[in-house]
Amino acid sequence: MNPRSPSRPLALIAIALIAGLALVASACSSSGSSSATFQGKDIVVSNVWARESAGAADTGAVYLTIENTSGTADKLFSASVPQAFAKSASIHETVTSDGTTATTMGAGSSSMMSMKEVASVTIPANGSVTFEPGGYHIMLIGLVAPLKDGQKFDLNLGFLNGGVVKVTANVKAS
Ligand SMILES: [Cu+2]
């Protein structure tokens, strides 16, 4: 047996490369999303974020993920923010001109998009709903000041079974 077999160093280099890539990938995913979670009764809210305001806009949208860990469906029916932060918060859904949600629409699409307020959002039993750009969001109206990258703010979410869950949103540049 030749101990200097060329296949061994090559294999080691390959392993080192794979390990390096895995490190880079995990670093990216941990910095790209907020790890904070917020608990209600059988409700877990995570990844609460809002986009930095463009210019002096006085409206904003909050995105988040709601998980229902119980065997009974729940409903998000209210959202509120401190008056010192914004005039009001409400549950909105983005819809396209044909009435469907816009989640799968590309950025260059020419379809008309609009938003409407919804009375509640059902969180299925042992399921989750993600509020994301183009779909559900918490609409902020009458922001006292534009949202800035790195800013945090509080939001109260009211659930039929889960009670009131106080969450903190992170403002991101993009
Ligand atoms: Cu909206």
What does this structure look like?
The chain is mainly beta and 174 residues long. The chain has 2 domains: 32 residues; 136 residues, Sandwich (Immunoglobulin-like), CATH 2.60.40.1890. 15% of the residues lie in helices and 45% in strands. Strands 1, 2, 3, 4, 5, 6, 7, 8, 9, 10 and 11 form an 11-stranded mixed β-sheet that branches. Strand 1 and strand 2 form a beta hairpin. About 8% of the residues have low confidence. The site of copper (II) ion has 5 residues, from strand 9.
What is the count of structural domains? 2
Supply the CATH architecture of the largest domain.
Answer: Sandwich
**How would a crystallographer describe the biggest sheet?**
11 strands, mixed
Mean pLDDT across the residues is: 83
Percentage of residues in helical conformation: 10-25%
**Classification by helices and strands:** mainly beta
Low-pLDDT residue intervals, each spanning 5 or more residues = 20-33
Number of strands: 11
Distance between the amino and carboxyl termini: 57 Å
Rounded to an integer in angstroms, the radius of gyration calculated over CA atoms is 21 Å
CATH fold node name of the largest domain: Immunoglobulin-like
User: Which ligands accompany this protein?
Assistant: copper (II) ion
Q: If helices are DSSP runs of H or I spanning 4 or more residues, what is the number of helices? A: 1
